[in-house]
Amino acid sequence: MKTKNCDLCKVEESILFRIQIDKGKTWLFVCKSCCEKSQKLENYKYGGTWKGSRH
Q1: Among 6, 25, 30, 31, whose CB has the most other CB atoms within 10 angstroms?
Q2: Range list of H helices, 1-55
């Protein structure tokens, strides 16, 4: 199983969420906790889910 670190809190996870929190800026891969916190931001945009295990 592959893992990546959350771009915000640096926790290693096997499932990350691709989001933007600044309009027109780069995409971030974040953990579930950081994703939920970011949803409250004005420029939040969801762009998919990255999974370390592919079936």
Answers
A1: 30
A2: 32-38
